[in-house]
Amino acid sequence: MLKSMTLSAAMAICASFAMAQENQALLQSPPGDPYVQVSDVLPLPAFIPGLGTLFVSPDTLPAGPFLAYDHDGKLSATVYMTPLEELQNGVSYDDLATGSQAVTSVDIYYNAGHPGVDKPHAHVVLFHDADAKSRLAE
User: Fold this and answer.
1) Which residues contact 55 (CB under 8 A, 6 or more apart)?
2) pLDDT digits (tens, 9 = 90+) for 44-61
3) Torsion of CA 115, 116, 122, 125, to 10 degrees
């Protein structure tokens, strides 16, 4: 019994360490696989004022998460783009990842559509530190 408890505790510590390393890798641009820079695959600017430089794993579209980096490559926000029609039809987006566990504020606003998420949708933006919004503004 003691062996299985020790083994379980060791496995939990290893999993926590692996998760911490993975989250650490996301804190600086570029985040690496499976993320791609949105402007490399869609006709969008490399830096979008208000959102920053976006990276997304194509497998998670349309909701994301989109990882938003400032001009210095620091992870500043995690953005979700949830199509309104899908929400109205009862689609749920569960267990969405975040680029960082630290969230200091959240903005939610309407977007009529753009390349990559053409239909009207909501942007849900989780800012990861107090200055993030200002760093992404310009």
Assistant:
1) 29, 30, 31, 35, 36, 37, 38, 66, 67, 69
2) 999 999 999 999 999 999
3) -100
Q: Are strands 121-127 and 36-37 parallel, antiparallel or unpaired?
A: unpaired
Distance separating alpha carbons of residues 37 and 118, to the nearest angstrom: 18
Residue 21, pLDDT > 80, answer: no
Structure tokens, 48: 């979008």
The CATH code that applies to domain 2-137 is 3.30.200.270
What are the C-alpha distances in Å from 1 to residues 7, 8, 10, 13, 78? 10, 11, 14, 18, 42
Residues in the chain: 138
Domain chopping of the chain, boundaries: 2-137
Strand order in the sheet with 36-37: 36-37, 53-56, 66-69, 75-83, 121-127, 105-111
Q: Which helix (H) or strand (E) holds 10?
A: helix 2-26
Average confidence (pLDDT) over 99-126: 95
Query: How far is it, in rounded angstroms, from Cα 109 to Cα 102?
Result: 21
Q: What is the pTM of this model?
A: 0.82
